[in-house]
Design brief:
alpha/beta; about 40% helix; DUF429 domain-containing protein; DUF429
């Protein structure tokens, strides 16, 4: 059985969580190419990084994700910078390019991820075989869909527990996985040997949510968070032919109305 993979940037590298035949594994990678080398046989690889860069206007899928999450959690989705800004070397130049192209500045959060955005963009432009497997998703959207409503911030008391419980309620195979990952990769390792840092517990849960979304959406992600165009046939693409969409599994019934 081909694995389902969720990938999140975890300060030191790419954290990939895979589900294969009910078994969960976690591993850090130095590059997105390394992730692909290990998981080119995957059914799907969902990455928490923008894929498909705008040229002259904001991405509708970003707007849709914000509306899907509601006012309380919309801030967790940042506006994707334009392609020109992603190619700039300084924050000042990138912010200026983004304002000229999209009529808006560039958040420091978005600028901090520009090297990762650039890395994934160049990887997908170079690896044609990855385009049908690697897709963009967003952990907060995944959790909201699984929980039938937005969860408290992962930085608040109980936020991580709520996310762990949501994953375990969604899929029985997730029971105890997060605690095992923490013990094997963080608590059970000397500080010099750790690959997953103590501050990256939330990234573990995010990557798990992406992997579980890949599994739940097996058979195709015809649903995208794009309020302007719903359906694979109408997904907008950027100048390099990459789709501008955020994929997720079918939402719970009382969340479906938010997409209209």
């Amino acid at each position: 059985m081909a694995p389902f993979v969720g990938v999140d940037w975890a300060s030191r590298g790419w954290l990939a969580v895979a589900i294969e035949g009910g078994e969960w594994t976690a591993r850090m990678h130095p590059s997105i190419h390394s992730v692909w080398f290990d998981h080119r046989d995957a059914e799907s690889v969902l990455v928490d990084i923008p894929i498909g860069l705008p040229e002259t206007e904001r991405r509708e899928c970003d707007r849709g994700a914000k509306e899907f999450l509601g006012a309380d959690r919309a801030r967790s989705v940042f506006w994707t910078p334009c392609r020109d800004a992603v190619e700039r070397d300084t924050y000042a130049a990138a912010k200026r390019a983004n304002r000229e192209a999209l009529g808006d500045g560039l958040s420091t959060q978005a600028w901090g991820l520009v090297p990762r955005i650039r890395e994934v963009d160049r990887f997908l432009r170079d690896a044609d075989d990855a385009r049908g497997v690697v897709a963009e998703s967003h952990p907060e959207v995944c959790f909201a869909s699984f929980a039938a409503g937005s969860l408290p911030s992962k930085h608040e008391d109980g936020g991580l527990d709520a996310r762990r419980e949501t994953l375990e309620a969604k899929d029985a195979s997730a029971a105890g996985v997060y605690d095992r990952f923490v013990e094997e990769h963080i608590e059970g390792q000397p500080s010099w040997a750790r690959r997953i840092g103590k501050s990256n517990r939330d990234d573990l849960l995010d990557a798990m949510a992406l992997a579980l979304t890949a599994k739940a959406g097996a058979g195709g992600f015809e649903r995208t968070l794009d309020l302007a165009s719903d359906g694979a046939a109408s997904v907008p693409r950027d100048s390099e032919g990459l789709p501008m969409q955020i994929v997720y599994a079918e939402p719970e019934p009382d969340l479906r109305g938010r997409r209209k």
